[in-house]
Design a protein that fits this description.
With about 290 residues, the chain is α+β, with helices and mostly antiparallel strands. It has an eight-stranded antiparallel barrel. The N and C termini lie far apart (about 75 Å).
Amino acid sequence: MICTMAAATWSLKISKSQQLLLCRYRLGSAIYSSRGCSSESKKGWLQSLFVHKVDPRKDAHSNLLSKKESSNLYKIQFHNVKPECLQEYNSLSAEVQSRLHSDQDYPCEIVGSWNTWYGEQDQAVHLWRYSGGYPALTKSLNMLRDNKEYTEFRKERSKMLISRRNQLLLEFSFWNEPLPRAGPNIYELRTYRLKPGTMIEWGNNWARAIQHRQENEEAVGGFFTQIGDLYLVHHLWAYKDLQSRAETRNSAWLKAGWDENVYYTVPLIRSMESRIMIPLKNSPLQ
């Protein structure tokens, strides 16, 4: 009866959801009054209708999910190259990467370099590792700023590019270390854009699920962004060919627990993308 009267009185002024909350409040007030509860108790009960309590976090998710035994920082680059310049670009990049690696004082190394085969065409993807985290990144930038040869390389490279972007990454603690491997292989970079606030849940599920993807040594590395597009996850896989990829992925469904991982992680994803990539001749990941 109380709810009916409330709805009739306020239907022109408030929404249905507000009407429902008002009814709950009046019913609750009647109950509290009949039990002799104080006005402060009623006030607290009313606030509980509108206030969502969140347990405080004790640490950043980057500290909870990344490897503690190393302080590696990764950078991934996506370079969209003019189609007619791709081969020249690949040769120039390989030459510069080799010279940078020859400098023992340079605290950065190339982990892998690829051209996208399926996905965005005429694209180069480079993955770099900075041993020592952000201080190593700063040292690298300062060294390159004073390197006239590198400055000339950037000028020459700019003539070949349509666009470029990069991201700074940390590696998941439960994923394999991306180490050099012999080829020939193809590589798949699977990128997941997560809903904000779900990175911990993603990590908890994949910490269990990664065990189902180790038989063929296909797991290369798993990363999440720190700077750039946020709440972005990259999983890097290696396969002998596309047929091997299909067979390996299908076999995962035969293992107990893999379906559960998919069930719990799919709702966390806003969008996802897959690139099939071919390693360049100078790439440590072949």
